[in-house]
């Protein structure tokens, strides 16, 4: 039984070391969630103002811009999937990938060829393992994205939409990311970014007005509404991609914190279970030693009594 007790003690030390690691990762993720939430909040005023401006320009312009004009028979659609660079975040990346797969199937059922763009090593690894072609990918910044990262992602996507399927580009751009709802809830969502839906943009502006209590400002366009639209639409797409990256980063940290908390709790339960088993083994050792001592003393007493006779 002594060997069994040593095994239990060794496992308790191992699980305790793992518990320290998961607890530290939980605390780090919790701190990063706050930073990510602040980044999302800081980007909201710019995104809201830009959405209002784009809605005003698009409404006042009669020009058919490639980023706002829907084609009658779209042939190709791009899907931008945002996952994480690192694991240990529960089902965060897997849920985003499943949402992208559902969107891809729906687009293919509509007769569209799907072109995949991926952010994050987890998504890249999944597509490489499945043998799915990736038009472009970006890694190394999913936990703390910057606006420069969003611009680097958005630029080739905008160029592809402007080119159109006739010139090797795409007719639509969809984005799949994980929306941060709360510390306990993160939901994968899929949105169509381009061509820009003026109806949805107008609804977003109305919601922002109702929330802020401010009417939509009047704009004067110089040199023309078309020229301003050419300048604003790329910024609009960049801001939407940036917001999606920030939402995904906050969701990743929340999912990792929850996964590490679960791992820490499981480690504590395992330590308690192993401790009970170790105590039972120790008690069995003590009981066996007492039995051996009592048996030895009894045998010695019997031998002494026999020699006296």
Account of the protein in words:
The protein is an alpha/beta fold. It has a single domain (27-260), classed as 3-Layer(aba) Sandwich (Pyruvate Kinase, Chain: A, domain 1). Helices cover 66% and strands 11% of the residues. It is built from six helices and five strands, in the order αβαβαβαββαα. The chain has helices at 2-60, 92-109, 121-130, 147-163, 198-212, 225-308; strands at 76-82, 113-119, 136-138, 172-180, 186-194. A five-stranded mixed beta sheet has the order 3-2-1-4-5, with helices on both faces. Strand 2, helix 3 (121-130) and strand 3 (136-138) form a beta-alpha-beta unit. Helix 1 packs across helix 5. The radius of gyration is 31 Å and the shape is elongated. The mean pLDDT is 84.
Can you give keywords for this protein?
single chain, alpha/beta, Pyruvate Kinase, Chain: A, domain 1, five-stranded mixed β-sheet, elongated, membrane, CF(1)
Number of DSSP-assigned strands: 5
Share of helix, binned: 55-70%
The poorly predicted ranges are: none
Rounded to the nearest angstrom, the distance between the terminal CA atoms is 40 Å
Classify the secondary structure makeup into a structural class. alpha/beta
Characterize the main sheet. Answer: 5 strands, mixed
The coarse overall form would be: elongated
Order of helices and strands: HEHEHEHEEHH
């Amino acid at each position: 039984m002594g060997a069994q007790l040593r095994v239990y003690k060794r496992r308790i030390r191992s699980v305790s070391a793992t518990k320290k690691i998961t607890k530290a990762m939980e605390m780090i993720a919790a701190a990063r969630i706050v930073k990510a939430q602040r980044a999302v909040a800081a980007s909201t005023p710019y995104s809201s103002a830009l959405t209002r401006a784009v809605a005003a320009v698009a409404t006042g312009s009669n020009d058919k811009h490639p980023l706002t004009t829907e084609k009658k028979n779209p042939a190709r659609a791009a899907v931008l999937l945002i996952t994480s660079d690192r694991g240990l975040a529960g089902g965060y990346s897997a849920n985003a990938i499943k949402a992208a797969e559902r969107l891809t199937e729906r687009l293919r059922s509509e007769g569209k060829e799907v072109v995949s763009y991926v952010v994050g090593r987890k998504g890249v690894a999944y597509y490489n393992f499945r043998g799915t072609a990736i038009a472009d990918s970006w890694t190394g910044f999913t936990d703390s994205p910057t606006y420069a990262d969003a611009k680097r992602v958005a630029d080739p996507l905008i160029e592809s939409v402007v080119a159109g399927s006739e010139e090797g580009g795409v007719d639509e751009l969809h984005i799949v990311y994980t929306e941060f709802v709360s510390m306990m809830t993160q939901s994968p969502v899929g949105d169509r970014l381009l061509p820009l839906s003026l109806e949805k943009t107008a609804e977003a502006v109305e919601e922002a007005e109702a929330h802020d209590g401010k009417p939509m400002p009047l704009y004067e366009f110089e040199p023309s509404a078309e020229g301003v639209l050419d300048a604003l639409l790329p910024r609009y797409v960049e801001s939407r991609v940036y917001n999606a990256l920030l939402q995904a980063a906050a969701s990743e940290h929340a999912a990792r914190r929850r996964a590490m908390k679960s791992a820490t709790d499981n480690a504590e339960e395992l330590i308690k279970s192993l401790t009970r088993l170790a105590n039972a083994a120790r008690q069995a050792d003590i009981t066996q030693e007492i039995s051996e001592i009592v048996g030895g003393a009894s045998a010695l007493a019997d031998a002494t009594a026999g020699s006296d006779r």
